[in-house]
Amino acid sequence: MASARATQKQGTRRKVLEAARDLFNEIGYDETTIRAIAERAGVSVGSVFTTFASKSDVLSQVMEDRVDALYSELERVARHLRGSVADRISSVFAIHYDFECRRVKLFLAHIAASFSPTLEATTIPYGRNTRFKTMLIDLMAEAVERGEVRPDTDLDLVLDTLMAAYAWNYRLAAQSRADAAAMTAIMERQVALILGGLRP
Amino acid sequence: MNHIPMRMHVPSLRPQKLTRRAMAKQQTREKVLQAAREMFIERGYEGATIRDIARAAGMSTGAVFASFTDKPELFDAILSEDFAALVDPMQDAATTAPSAREALVAMFGVAYRMHAAQLPLIQAALAASWTRTPEAEQLRRETMRPVRALVTEALERGVDRGELSQRFDLSLVADVVWDLFLAGYRPAAFEGLSTEGQTGRLAERIDLVLAAVKA
Questions:
Q1: Angle at CA A117, nearest 5°, toward A180 and B136?
Q2: What is the distance of C-alpha B96 from the center of its chain?
Q3: Domain limits at B91?
Q4: Which among A113, A117, A161 is the nearest to B208, CB-wise?
Q5: ipTM score assigned to the predicted complex
Q6: Topology of A1-52 in CATH?
Q7: B198, containing H or E segment
Q8: Taking chain A (200 residues) in consecutive chunks of 10 residues, what is each chunk's mean pLDDT?
Q9: CA of B17 to nearest chain A CA: how many angstroms apart?
Q10: Chain A hits for B124, Cβ within 8 Å
Q11: Last residue of a domain, one of B68, B93, B110
Q12: pTM
């Protein structure tokens, strides 16, 4: 049984994360102050700081909480993917673009913040999502087993190359307001290119 | 590659005759840029204030604002200078290389080497690139265009030489290669990867992509 105090702390945490998620997406990360987050959440500035070390810590927690639901769904879907390895991997990226584009400004802030020179130890920057990476590695390993991809392939290298293309495609959202469908279409061609040289 | 200057300082193009007033304005601008560059490298983008920059340049904050509307504009002006200075040495490295692969690795190696001394600046630039205004973005794209063109040219030469297949959309290949180049700044900034390490890492990735495009 959680104590009343622990329950209250949980409540504050949830309220702060929801307020921050909306503010980051509405007005942007840089423009959002801890004070504004506290105000929107209806808590004191001090209580935000007892729960989180910094604004970037709040951002990384917002992102962590958001993807929990996505991954339970994705891990279920991944088992049912069919077609070539390029098709399967493209589907996984498509689902991500779809999901992140619902709050694209929030996601762009997350990528931007990962370049910040002052990352706190508690902050989980963009690019450390191990579930995403594990899923893609598994799909490629299965393709090796099926004989679709050469067995001597350095899968980590391919993964890293795919992730670079995936991430930088978000600049289309940042710069020309591209939607998930547009990014998915480009990513499909990039996946085909990157995996194209791996046939046995 | 000893023709690459350690510190990039590109004198702006000057019309033949400038009035004294215009000359003074130009000098102020260059003084601000120089001071700002040092401040950004030393303190990072967020850490360097206009007040600090003005003090380092030995002028008032008002004088800084007479040359630049705000910090983002000042920052972009520095980046533009840097990328403009990269075009020639990158082109030299690319055109003397025997293959498309070597050309790409050599030209990006030049960029990595040049930027090694000012990683905080690059880091800040990459962070800012996700949240720019469309106008600032347009300007930035114009600045990068000549550098981007070098990538496409290196690939085109590869096709001409018969190394790379004609069946591929070179702009798609160029985009992926460019993404990989930019992604290579992260391990340098955060994991202390050396310039050689960065270049080697990029070479592996370029090999992977070009494997699919081989003739």
A1: 50
A2: 21
A3: 70-211
A4: A161
A5: 0.82
A6: Arc Repressor Mutant, subunit A (1.10.10)
A7: helix B195-211
A8: 76 93 88 93 92 88 84 84 94 92 86 70 66 92 96 95 92 84 96 92
A9: 38
A10: 115, 117
A11: B68
A12: 0.83
